[in-house]
C-alpha cells in the first residue's frame, strides 16, 4: 500500500475526488488516502489556508493528488497552487495533451507533452508597486539552474517514453538574456541525448503553429508564463481543460492535479466531469510504479469518452460525475 496525500479542494473538487476514490477502490489500487483540506475550505475548517498537517503529510508521503482550489483575482491570498509548487520546489509542470478517438475535439492527431518551468519567471513573486510614481513592476527572474533542470526533465522524459523531438519555446529575440539561458541549456543538455532531436520556436510563431499543425510537436519545454498559456491552448486542441491531466514534479515530491478550476457555476450539482482528475491519477499511478494499473485505467477512460452517452453534460452526455466513474469501471471490466 502506498499512502498518498489527498486534497479535495473547493467547488467541484470534492465531487471529482469522490469519483477517483470510487474508481481506485473498485479497481483495487494499492493506495491509502490521507485527506486534508486546503484553500477556502481549509480556512473555514482550520483557520489556516494551507494547514501545517497537510504540509507535513505531503513531506512524508512525497506524492499528492489535488482538486482545484479557489484563488481570488487581484486581491486576497496568494494562489495556493503557486505556493505549493514553490514550497516543495515542484519545478516541472507536465501536461500531456493527446487526442482521444471518438471525443469531439478540434484535432484528432495531437500527441504532445508540455514541460512548463513552474517556479521562476513572472511567478517568482517579485511584484512591486511604487505609490509615488504609480508604477507596478512584476519581475521575471530566470536562473541557469532553473533552465537546466526543466530542459533536462524534458529530454529525460523524451528518452524514457521513446519520443523523438524536443521543442524549446522562448522569446530570445526580445528577452535576450532570459531567452538565451533556456536556449543555452538546451544546447548543453541535448549533447547528452544523441537520439533525440531538438529545435526552437519563438513563442508568437509557436502559438500559430500549434493551432495550424499541432501534430508536428512532440515534447515542448518553455518558461513559466509561456507554458501557462500554451498548456491551456494545447488542452483546447484535444477537448479542453475538462479532459487533460497535469502534474507538478520536483526531485523529491510530486503533486498531481486537475488543471481546470473549481467551476462554481456547476459545483454541488454532481455533474462535473472527473476525466481530468482521473487522467492525473493515471500519471500518479505511473509515478508510483503501478504502470499496469495506469494503462488499464487510461484505456477504460478512453473507451468511456468514445461513447457520448457515457459522458457528462460538458461532453454532450447525460451522466452524472459518479455515473461516469461507474461507466469507467464497466469499461474496465470489458477490457479484462
Ligand atoms: P473553471 O475551470 O473553474 O471554469 C471554467 C468553465 O469550465 C466553467 O463553465 C466550468 O463549469 C467549466 N468546467 C471546469 N471544470 C469542469 C469539469 N471538470 N467538468 C465540467 N465543466 C467544467 O475556471 P474559472 O471559472 O476561471 O475559475 C473558477 C475558480 O477556480 C477561480 O477561483 C480560480 O482561481 C480557480 N482555479 C483553480 C485552479 C486550480 O486549482 N488548479 C485552476 C484554474 C482556476
Automatic annotation (TrEMBL):
Gene3D superfamilies: Isopropylmalate Dehydrogenase. Its EC number is 1.1.1.41. GO terms for molecular function: isocitrate dehydrogenase (NAD+) activity; magnesium ion binding; NAD binding. It holds the Pfam family Iso_dh. InterPro entries: IsoCit/isopropylmalate_DH_CS (IPR019818), IsoPropMal-DH-like_dom (IPR024084). Residues 3-328 form the Isopropylmalate dehydrogenase-like domain. PANTHER family: DECARBOXYLATING DEHYDROGENASES-ISOCITRATE, ISOPROPYLMALATE, TARTRATE, ISOCITRATE DEHYDROGENASE [NAD] SUBUNIT ALPHA, MITOCHONDRIAL. Belongs to the isocitrate and isopropylmalate dehydrogenases family. This is Isocitrate dehydrogenase (NAD+).
Amino acid at each position: 500500500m502506498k499512502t498518498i496525500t489527498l486534497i479535495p479542494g473547493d467547488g467541484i473538487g470534492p465531487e471529482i475526488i469522490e469519483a477517483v476514490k470510487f474508481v481506485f477502490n473498485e479497481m483495487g489500487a494499492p493506495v491509502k488516502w490521507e485527506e486534508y483540506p486546503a484553500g477556502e475550505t481549509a480556512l473555514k475548517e482550520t483557520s489556516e489556508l494551507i494547514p501545517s498537517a497537510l504540509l507535513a503529510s505531503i513531506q512524508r508521503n512525497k506524492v499528492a493528488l489535488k482538486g482545484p482550489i479557489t484563488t481570488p483575482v487581484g486581491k486576497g491570498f496568494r494562489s495556493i497552487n503557486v505556493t505549493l509548487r514553490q514550497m516543495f520546489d515542484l519545478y516541472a509542470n507536465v501536461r500531456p495533451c493527446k487526442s482521444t478517438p471518438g471525443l469531439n475535439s478540434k484535432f484528432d492527431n495531437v500527441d504532445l507533452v508540455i514541460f512548463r518551468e513552474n517556479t521562476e519567471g513572472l511567478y517568482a513573486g517579485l511584484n512591486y508597486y511604487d505609490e509615488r510614481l504609480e508604477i507596478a513592476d512584476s519581475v521575471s527572474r530566470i536562473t541557469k539552474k532553473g533552465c537546466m533542470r526543466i530542459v533536462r526533465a524534458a529530454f529525460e522524459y523524451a528518452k524514457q517514453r521513446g519520443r523523438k523531438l524536443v521543442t524549446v519555446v522562448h522569446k530570445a529575440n526580445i528577452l535576450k538574456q532570459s531567452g538565451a539561458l533556456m536556449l543555452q541549456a538546451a544546447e548543453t543538455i541535448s549533447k547528452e541525448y544523441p537520439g533525440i532531436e531538438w529545435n526552437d520556436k519563438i513563442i508568437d510563431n509557436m502559438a500559430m503553429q500549434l493551432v495550424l499543425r499541432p501534430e508536428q510537436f512532440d515534447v515542448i519545454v518553455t518558461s513559466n508564463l509561456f507554458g501557462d498559456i500554451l498548456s491551456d491552448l494545447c488542452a483546447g486542441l484535444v477537448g479542453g481543460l475538462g479532459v487533460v491531466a497535469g502534474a507538478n514534479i520536483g526531485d523529491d515530491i510530486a503533486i498531481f492535479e486537475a488543471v481546470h478550476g473549481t467551476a462554481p457555476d456547476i459545483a454541488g450539482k454532481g455533474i462535473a466531469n472527473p476525466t481530468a482528475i482521473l487522467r492525473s491519477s493515471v500519471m500518479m499511478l505511473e509515478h508510483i510504479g503501478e504502470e499496469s494499473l495506469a494503462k488499464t485505467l487510461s484505456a477504460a477512460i478512453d473507451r468511456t469518452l468514445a461513447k457520448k452517452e457515457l459522458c457528462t453534460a460538458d461532453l454532450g452526455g447525460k451522466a452524472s460525475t459518479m455515473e461516469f466513474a461507474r461507466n469507467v469501471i464497466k469499461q474496465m471490466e470489458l477490457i479484462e
